[in-house]
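Anyone else keep sequences and structure tokens together like this?

Example one:
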Amino acid sequence: MNKLASKEDLKKRFWDGMSVMVGGFLGCGTPEKIIDLMLEMDVKNLTVIVNDTAFPDMGIGRLIVNGQVAKVITSHIGTNPETRRLYGEGKIEIEFVPQGTLAERIRAGGGGLGGGVTPTGGGTMAEEGKQKLTINGREYLLELPLRADIAILKGWTADEQGNTIYRGTARNFNPVMALAADTVILEAEHIVQSGDLNPDHVVTPCNLIDYILTGEGK
């Protein structure tokens, strides 16, 4: 099945107030062309689940600068002064999650699990409002799963069915997010015909990808 979609095709998949998972680490592995589309549409009041808020002129940082994000669930915001400013002024809500815990919460959401337990964050502000469990004499926090309406991901090479290969560290959060959203949209740098990829190299299989936008936006 050919899943290639134009920007116009994808516009109906975004709406105000939706939740979005965004692949990437400091913008590396973030689908910039899909971010462009969201900027063009000016979708607002977004809840964004992402490792970090990148930079003001890169990745998710551009949506924040444009005032489209209401809440971010993330591990850090230190590289984006605009996020810090908006947070300090009470104009954006931020839920800070330790990086490993963030990955596990997304994995739990994708796996249909009720959550995960971790000692990370115990005794800090991260434990506020969370259930605590004592296992073998050690205290853990129960971290609830994360899912989103849409995950937007960046692949290096994909075939027309959506089988996806990532390149180097640009892989980061993309594969785990592919499991944890109702709809998954992939931006790929290279599109090849079905059967051209070595199956041993595929990281995200085609059944997890709903739509593909090429890096050129075709």
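And example two:
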Amino acid sequence: MNDNKAADARARGQALRSARVARARTIRRRIVAGSVALFVAAWLLITVVLASGHDPALAKKSAATSSSSATTVASNPVTTSSSGATSSSVQSSGSTSSSSGASSGGSVSSVTTSQS
């Protein structure tokens, strides 16, 4: 009887071990198949995008960024004086600079804009 019980226990143990090995093999195959499918899908997407001519790296820049020249509102120095105080503003391409003194009349203000 003991031999029969031992043989049954070994058979059940062997069946459990075979089931675990088969389950592990199935999980490994699914993971490998999923990884390969994801890799192929990613490269296929890249290939289709590049073949269709919609390469984002080669896309044209917008009109605002392609202009490298700055727009200057006032490029000549302007000096205003009234009752002894002076106001002066000098502009250079791409920068804004203004200095004004206390004048009782109006002061001259100029603005330089540039887009990069």
